[in-house]
Q: What sequence folds into this?
């Protein structure tokens, strides 16, 4: 990626992804290059490669598997960094392929209710805006529910996305009960023949127990209107947080029954390797990646592209 390109210039999502994962891919690439030059492959080299992979957040199982795969047929031979990168890309793709699944919006549930959860600042509201744009462009009637009633700014932010995407927004006063808001929104969506209801939520972690109680209550209340709702629970994860994403998945999965992941901020200085560890451990579907703050900066998650970006294969 050319660093002199002005920020406003439109980059493709692939350029943004490879740019964002550059920190991971180039430190991986240069560390591997240092390890393999002027040496023949032996056990110690494979252990060093495994350490490099661990530092890239890929997780212990995947790191061990990749270094074992590098070793196959190559003992006592010289190898190149590119050979290692190719093995990394192949093995990472194998882990990611089973979780790369599109978000399927059922036609029988009306509205199809998508609850969006995640910690503060992970990109929930922005992702809702991007999704609203995408789903309306596909010809669906979308409604937004401002379930983050905790901060006035969060309600305003969702209203702006509502205007931008021409989607009605159901919002209450700051500090009002988010579960009753969700209840009202689903009732209104049903009456208004809405196809998809996107429910925003608060994500303050400073009081984890309270947050999780609130989420449980939202789910319970949605079920009073439609026993099958929510039809999808998307957990939005910020790619820059690294290892912390693992505990976020556990906490939110336990409380809200996460059905799929969206990883945002893969355009920044991302630590996307964690997605590989997550895929290996939790096997939750990954639907989309966020590659910017704009309305179009949401791309479907594809295993090969992501694997190549991590490995630094152009
Ligand atoms: N660079 C980048 N920024 C993002 C992305 N998604 C969200 N953001 C920004 O992250 C910040 C927090 O997003 P927000 O949607 O308010 O998070 P929320 O608290 O989970 O609702 C905002 O400044 C967003 O513009 C992304 O994919 N890439
Ligand atoms: Mg928000």
A:
């Amino acid at each position: 990626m050319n660093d002199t390109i002005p920020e406003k210039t439109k980059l493709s999502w692939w350029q943004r992804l490879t740019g964002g994962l550059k920190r991971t891919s180039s430190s991986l690439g240069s560390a591997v290059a240092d390890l393999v030059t002027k040496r023949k492959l032996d056990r110690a080299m494979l252990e060093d490669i495994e350490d490099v992979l661990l530092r890239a957040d890929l997780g212990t199982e995947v790191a061990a598997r990749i270094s074992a795969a590098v070793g196959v047929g190559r003992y006592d031979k010289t190898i190149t960094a590119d050979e290692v990168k190719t093995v990394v890309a192949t093995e990472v793709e194998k882990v990611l392929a089973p979780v790369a699944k599109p978000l399927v919006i059922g036609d029988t549930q009306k509205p199809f209710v998508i609850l969006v959860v995640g910690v503060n600042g992970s990109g929930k509201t922005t992702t809702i805006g991007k999704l609203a744009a995408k789903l309306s462009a596909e010809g669906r009637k979308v409604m937004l529910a401002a379930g983050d009633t905790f901060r006035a700014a969060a309600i305003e932010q969702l209203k702006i996305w509502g205007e931008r995407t021409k989607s009605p927004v159901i919002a209450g006063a700051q500090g009002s009960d988010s579960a009753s808001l969700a209840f009202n929104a689903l009732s209104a969506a049903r009456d208004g023949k809405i196809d998809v209801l996107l429910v925003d939520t608060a994500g303050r972690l400073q009081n984890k127990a309270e947050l999780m109680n609130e989420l449980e209550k939202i789910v319970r209340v949605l079920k009073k209107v439609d026993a099958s709702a929510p039809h999808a629970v998307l957990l939005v994860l910020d790619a820059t947080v690294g290892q912390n994403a693992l505990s976020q998945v556990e906490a939110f999965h336990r409380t809200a029954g996460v059905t799929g992941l969206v990883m945002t901020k893969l355009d920044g200085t991302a630590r996307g390797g964690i997605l590989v560890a997550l895929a290996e451990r939790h096997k939750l579907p990954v639907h989309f990646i966020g590659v910017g703050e704009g309305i179009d900066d949401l791309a479907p998650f594809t295993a090969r592209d992501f694997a190549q970006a991590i490995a630094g294969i152009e």
The chain has a mean pLDDT of 93.
